[in-house]
Amino acid sequence: MAHSMTAFSRQSHEAAWGSLHLELRSVNQRYLDLHFRLPESLRALEPIWRETLRKRLARGKVECTLQFAPATVGAGFGVNRERLMELAFALQQIRGEIPDAPMPDALALLDHPGIGDAQEPDLDDIKAAAETLFSQALDELIEGRAREGKRLAELIQARLDSTQEQVAQVRALLPGILERQHILLLERLEAVRAELDPQRLEAELVLMAQKADVDEELDRLETHVAEVARQLIQKGPIGRRLDFLMQELNREANTLSSKSVVAETTRCAVELKVLIEQMREQIQNIE
């Protein structure tokens, strides 16, 4: 089954310790090219995720972005009672020595070093949540690549059908083309027949008839078309095989064009090249 290399997924998670937002996007690339943008505190996840992507994807430029926003001060914010009592005792001593000295308010006390005890979130919890997000995003990305790949396969199959139609047209015209070519050659050579050796004349006619015969090219075109259709329903990466088959199809179309001796064959060869180029453009998106 064809998979596209273009897809996008975004996942988010909210918790008491803050929020996580993860994005996975992939675009066309000849090989698998991975890029990560992670918070420093979660950088240890990169090699794990990199290996997972290598196992599940074969081609494409993949960008993974993870954003972590810690919860605002308040939730999970406590007071170091031991330090607070030490500070209160020190303030009482100051008041005993300097009765008129201004005393700090509650907010000022919280700003004093060691009094406000902000609870650090558990990094293991954040990592576990991030790994869940990554797994969900990757599943969604692969599903998106599969849906897009299905649409690409349908477009390619439609052009394969048109290619087969062009081949069938040329094959149907081939007997008449060969007969017309033979008549034209005879007419052109009739004027100089007396000047040519009969055996050499016959050899030249056979050679020119062989050059005009494109039956083998048509057979190969049909074979390549069938193989492309077969590859479109295969499991695993197929983009490189399809790209190679497009080169082979184009080679046969060029040969057909070079052997053309009538307008009908030339027109079909041109149409084949157009269809092959359209397929090649779509195949650049396939994994």
TrEMBL record:
Statement: the UniProt record of this protein carries the keyword Manganese: no
Q: Give the highest taxon in the source lineage.
A: Bacteria
InterPro entries on file:
YicC-like_C, YicC-like_N, YicC/YloC-like
Q: Which residues form the Endoribonuclease YicC-like N-terminal domain?
A: 3-153
Give residue ranges for domain Endoribonuclease YicC-like C-terminal: 174-287
Alphabetized UniProt keyword annotations: Endonuclease, Hydrolase, Nuclease
Which Pfam families would you find in this protein's record? Answer: YicC-like_C, YicC-like_N
What is its cofactor?
A: a divalent metal cation
Q: What is this protein called?
A: YicC family protein
